């Protein structure tokens, strides 16, 4: 059984951040669960374009307000607490945060914790 406290994990190398977001990786590939689980906080007023070509992601909004745009179709979906989205087609998307937003996110395959976003908004696929 794996038990982790978000408040403790925030003070380890499982907390990754830049100026507009932070992600606390509660589960990573080396935990052997077949997915990774993150609590991600994104700054108010920020906009991010991602394209996880090598990963599937599901995201549950815990707090905040914003929107996600499917860049293939132009469809915009409002995000608020209780709304979930899943990038089941490796959907290229833009996330816009009107307020600070907190999400619970799962990635498959799991991330290792060492990934950085590439220029196209994706993570490279770890092969080892």
Automatic annotation (TrEMBL):
Top-level EC class: lyase
UniProtKB keywords: Lyase
InterPro entries attached to this UniProt entry: Ectoine_synth, RmlC-like_jellyroll, RmlC_Cupin_sf
Gene Ontology MF annotations: ectoine synthase activity
Family matches, as SUPFAM superfamilies: RmlC-like cupins (SSF51182)
CDD domains: cupin_EctC
Catalyses which reaction(s): (2S)-4-acetamido-2-aminobutanoate = L-ectoine + H2O
A Gene Ontology BP annotation from the UniProt entry: ectoine biosynthetic process
Family label: Belongs to the ectoine synthase family.
Role summary: Catalyzes the circularization of gamma-N-acetyl-alpha,gamma-diaminobutyric acid (ADABA) to ectoine (1,4,5,6-tetrahydro-2-methyl-4-pyrimidine carboxylic acid), which is an excellent osmoprotectant.
Protein name (record): L-ectoine synthase
Organism of origin: Roseinatronobacter monicus
Originating gene: ectC
């Amino acid at each position: 059984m794996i038990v982790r406290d978000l408040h403790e994990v925030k003070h380890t190398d499982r907390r990754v951040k830049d100026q507009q977001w932070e992600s606390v990786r509660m589960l990573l590939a080396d935990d052997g669960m077949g997915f990774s689980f993150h609590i991600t906080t994104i700054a108010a007023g920020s906009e991010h374009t991602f394209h996880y070509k090598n990963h599937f992601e599901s995201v549950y909004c815990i707090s905040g307000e914003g929107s996600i745009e499917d860049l293939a179709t132009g469809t915009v979906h409002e995000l608020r607490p209780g709304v979930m989205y899943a990038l089941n087609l490796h959907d290229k998307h833009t996330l816009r945060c009107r307020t600070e937003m907190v999400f619970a996110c799962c990635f498959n395959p799991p991330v290792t914790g060492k990934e950085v976003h590439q220029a196209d908004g994706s993570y490279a696929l770890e092969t080892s």
